[in-house]
Amino acid sequence: MVHARLGVAAENSGKLVSTVRREARRIAGEENRPLVIVDGPPGIGCPVIASVTGATLVLAVTEPTVSGEHDLERVLALTRHFGIPAAVCVNKWDLNPEMTERIEDRARRVGARVVGRIRYDRAVTLAQMQERAVVETEAPCVEDIRHIWNQLGM
Predict the structure, then answer these.
(1) Residue 75 phi/psi, 5° resolution?
(2) Which of 11, 13, 31, 150 has the fewest CB atoms nearer than 10 Å to its CB?
(3) Hey, which CATH number is domain 56-152, 3.90.1150.150, 3.40.710.10, 3.40.50.300, 3.30.70.360?
(4) Between helices 66-82 and 97-109, what is the axis angle to 10°?
(5) Rounded CA separation 66/13 (Å)
(6) How far is CA 13 from the centre of its chain?
(7) How many CB atoms lie within 10 A of CB 91?
(8) Burial code of 44-54, b = ≥16 C-beta within 10 A, e = fewer?
(9) What's the whole-number mean pLDDT along residues 104-130?
(10) Where are the domains of the chain?
(11) What is the model's pTM?
(12) Helix, strand, coil in percent for the chain, rounding step 5
């Protein structure tokens, strides 16, 4: 895992993301790792653009809210602009099934592939408190996450 910390009110977060991404690729090459996963920030600003630069696929994770729908539309427009294939999953989908359907329909209409949904699961917070990845637990949402991973072909 490669990470960095940006100071409060520090500038050039896009440059920092680019530096971290470049370092991750260097390490992956040295260790003969075929996959680098970049966890990008929300939104569409410079850090997001830096996160998706050079990506072969963007997995956009959104939540079933009006702001989630709006942000997703902007991210999908960004991926289309850069010609990067996009996949979408809706986190906490069961909190608003109607909005989830609407988001998935819109994503499909603009050419994104909907790869799955992740149910709301309090076990995610428990895993974080235990400093564990949720997929290392028996949480119900682990099945959802594994399904998405398989849909992505990873």
Answers:
(1) -65, -40
(2) 31
(3) 3.40.50.300
(4) 20
(5) 27
(6) 18
(7) 20
(8) bebbbbbbbee
(9) 96
(10) 1-39, 56-152
(11) 0.88
(12) 50, 10, 35
Cα 80 from Cα 95, distance rounded (Å) = 29
Q: pLDDT-based confidence at 135, cuts 50/70/90?
A: very high
Average pLDDT over residues 124-138: 94
Report how far residue 50's alpha carbon sits from residue 33's, in angstroms, rounded to the nearest whole number.
21
Please report the DSSP string for 14-32 in residue order. HHHHHHHHHHHHHHHHHTT
C-beta separation of 95 from 117 below 8 A: no
Residue type, 121: D
Residue whose entry in the numeric block shows the structure tokens 């929300």? 42
pLDDT at position 6 over 80: no
Angstrom distance (rounded) from CA 50 to CA 5: 16
pLDDT tens sequence across 52-107: 888 999 999 999 999 999 999 999 999 999 999 999 999 999 999 999 999 999 99
Q: How many CB atoms lie within 10 A of CB 19?
A: 14
The confidence score (pLDDT) of residue 12 equals: 65
Tokens representing 22 are 């470049």
